[in-house]
Amino acid sequence: MPSPIGHSLAALAVGWGVAGVATGRSGALRQAAILAAVGVAPDLDLLIGRHSLETHSVGAAVLVASVAAWQRWPVATSRRVIWTAVALAWLSHPLADALSIDTSSPYGVMALWPVSSGEIYTGWDVFGPISRRYWLDNFWYINLTSLVREVAILLPIATLVWWGRRPRT
Ligand SMILES: [Zn+2]
Description:
Layout: H1 4-19, H2 25-40, H3 58-70, H4 79-98, H5 139-165
Helix pairs in contact: 1-2, 1-4, 1-5, 2-4, 3-4
The structure holds zinc ion (ZN).
Zinc ion (ZN) binds next to helix 4.
């Protein structure tokens, strides 16, 4: 599972790809803050002890995107685009998790909930593991190397999407 920074970058790339970068400095900042928050939010499940389960799923993405479109979160102007951008930004999270080494049970993500509660885990090592075992000696080493790797992969992608989708006057 990538860190919050990696999840933010992935959600920004996906959200900008769908909705384009919002116009105006404050509009663009607000849009970026919402997209990044949507990308990180599935991991709030750590607080309730249900990590990588329902929040890491298509079902959760549909729910959150529907609220976003209904409430017109300032991600895009049309409800259809808001829904799509938020749903895909949310889904970028379980996708990135599924492409990473998972070091704690349950392995993988419950991506197809509520259709299926099976855990999806590729075992691929695209993004490194993030350790929450802060009491271990290797905590900083694991997390820093994973952070460098995910930024090296995702920052160029997010930058390219931003460049291609920035508003032009
Ligand atoms: Zn996660």
